[in-house]
Amino acid sequence: MALHPIGLEHFLIVAALLFSMGILAVATRRNAVSVLMGVELILNAANLNLVAFARYTDSGIEGHVFAIFVIVLAAAEAAVALAIVLNIYRNHQQVNVDQMSTLRG
Amino acid sequence: MSLSTVLFYLFAVVAVGGAAVVVFANRLIHAVFALLFAFFGVAGLYLFLNADFIAASQVLIYVGGILVLMLFGVMLTTRIYDMRLMAERVQFKPSVIVVGAGFAMLAAVILKTPWPVIDKPDSISTAKTIGSLLMTDYVLPFEVVGVLLLAALLGASMLSSRDGEEEEGDL
Q1: Domain membership of residue B5 as a residue range
Q2: B 75-104 → A contacts, CB under 8 A
Q3: What ipTM goes with this model?
Q4: Per-residue pLDDT for A3 more than 60?
Q5: pTM listed for this prediction
Q6: A30 and which of A7, A96, B16, B134 could share a cystine (Cβ 3.0–4.6 Å)?
Q7: Full DSSP string of chain B
Q8: Per the structure, how many domains does chain B have?
């Protein structure tokens, strides 16, 4: 990896690192809110890839439009997921995902 | 190293370092505040890529909206004053091994692929182009996303309303 001209590969590597961190958070955390934070990291990594490809390749600005949609979907997902987490906490007094093995409430 | 290179590595380190703290922090509240740095770092990277509108959306929606939501989620669902509260981890070693292997594979693919990179002139502002694209080519997804946001809003407020019709499981 060449150091001086910042190119597409640099952004892709950063996005891959963010993605790996997100997967790690989803896989290893027990708290449901932490798992949500991992999902947000993964979406950020995907967004970074979209914008980087829009900047460095011959693909117009559509990547930015998709990134906007991803951000909006992430906001909707976070709102609904946190509402569900709050409901689970109200019924179970804890939000550990590995103890949520039943959906019976 | 030029100034832009230094700035790129600064933003990249802030983003990846924040993400690392999100994964490895022992206190849940530290993880949430590290997520703030990760989002700001990614916003800086967007600025670096001439994506001014995306960077502004990132700061407004992620930092201003989603992160505050996460903070509420942490503070409402855990006893934050309990200093023994640790964000426990499960299956840590196998996850690190698998994710490390996955990252190595991704990095190998990224570095080996001959990307069709072209030289593009730096655009002044992308907001105008994005706006016209959203109103012409992408107007159907735009409207669908609007309906989805409305549904998510209603669903979230209905799910979290305390005195709905589902009172049997309540305190």
Answers
A1: 1-100
A2: 76-78, 87-92, 95-96, 98-100, 102-103
A3: 0.87
A4: no
A5: 0.88
A6: A96
A7: --HHHHHHHHHHHHHHHHHHHHHH-SSHHHHHHHHHHHHHHHHHHHHHTT-HHHHHHIIIIIIIIIHHHHHHHHHHHS-TT-TT----BSSHHHHHHHHHHHHHHHHHHHHHS---B---PPPS-SHHHHHHHHHTTTHHHHHHHHHHHHHHHHHHHHHT-TTSS--TT--
A8: 1
